[in-house]
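Per reviewer request, we include the raw input and output of the structure prediction for the construct analysed in the revised manuscript.
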Amino acid sequence: MNRTREATGENPNLSSEVQSLKEKLDEHSKQLEQSAEKLSQLQSESTVLRDQNQARNTAGNKKRRFNTQVRPMGNSNNPNSGEGATDPPPASGIAGATREGAENPRVHNLEESDSEPEYDKETPEKISATESSMTTYLEQMFSKRFDAMQSMVERLPGVAPPNPKE
């Protein structure tokens, strides 16, 4: 440091250069402080935004969890239910996808037809097999839906789980 004073005393150009370097150093120090403050501010904003995002994701997950789509049950007013004729389960896997007011064309055709229905021409083994497969299908669908409803009830706040002994 003493050398710098001696050198600046001897050469005025050096003193002005040292002075300008000191000014630049001060400017850079101020910029560094401002950048550090800005970084700190951005980090705190980032933390706040991260917390808000996490809260929104949690709320969205809760909303999505209860936004389960329930398919309508099939029509229970089937006129052929006691006669042993049943429709096979729909290929798409959706049971009873008919809407209110829409007629089932197969049932409608059987009611209007004066000729002998096709299911009477089937052998008793085919009818029995069809009934058995339909029963199995309906039991599986009932079990799935019952399990889904039970899990939704268990997730409701303040609802005690069902007693399995009942």
